[in-house]
Amino acid sequence: MICRLHAHLLPSLVEAEALNGGTAVIIDILRASSTMITALQNGAARVIPCSTTEEAFRLRGQAPSEATILGGERGGVRIPGFDLGNSPAEYRSETVKGRTVVFTTTNGTKAILKASAASKVLIGAFLNRQSIVQHLQQEQRDCHLICAGTDGIVTGEDVLFAGAVVDGLMGVNALDNGEFQSPQWCLNDSADMAWSFWKTQVGEAACHAREESSLNQCLALAMLNTQGGRNLVGLGYESDITLCSQIDQYTTTPTLDRHENCLFAS
To answer: What is the three-class DSSP state of 253?
Structure first.
């Protein structure tokens, strides 16, 4: 079976109707994707993505305060009146377990809402890369890797992850009783470019990395040299780059439930 694998370097570069019938993977590595994955991995009941702070405050006002947490950022820093910012380190089990996280960020949550026309919307990051790859292999339908970018500008860390997913899909042909079970992927040009970027920046070094920690270090170094990485260093969040560079740490894949407009772990 041949499936199309599209990378979109910005949400503005994909039309909503192009997503019909496909699976969209939302990518905002530094840091919204990584934070939402961490929250659900650590037991949050659900994550509700919001486009505005006003909507977030309104949603919290409709629920018991002890059951709901406001999380997110503007300009990379915690929003005044919110409980948490956009650092994965803040979303510990003792803070989020069993609670709803109402979440809004400058770029990532807007990308989620724009992808609502897709048949399925997943959240991807290096933390759950292998789970994303496995989901896409099993579903066997067209896939759209949507990079959130920063304020309408392409960011290298998102493109790196898109390339890492392409690498995982192109490099695996699962065998069962002698028959290929994985779909054959037809890449668009952006997917091909993202794949090349991954191989150049990290993948080649990964071939020589004998330990997982070495691969994570290679990735962290690559992300330090992206615009998103430089922005975080400037804000004093360099440690978040290390957290977001831990490859295949979690099995949680946040999945959008359109009826409830929220993300659940799957």
So the answer is: coil
Degrees to nearest 5, angle at CA 189 with 133 and 126:
30
Q: Which domains does the chain have, with CATH numbers?
A: 2-265 (3.90.1560.10)
Confidence (pTM)? 0.93
* Pairwise CA distance, residues 58 & 29, whole Å: 27
- The tally of CA atoms less than 13 A away on the side-chain side of residue 88 is 28
Tokens representing 198 are 């991954």
Residue 232's H or E segment, with its range, is: helix 227-235
- Give Cβ neighbours of residue 236 (< 8 Å, ≥ 6 apart): none
> pLDDT tens digits, residue range 38-64?
999 999 999 999 999 999 999 999 887
Cα end-to-end distance, the chain, whole Å = 25
DSSP 203: I
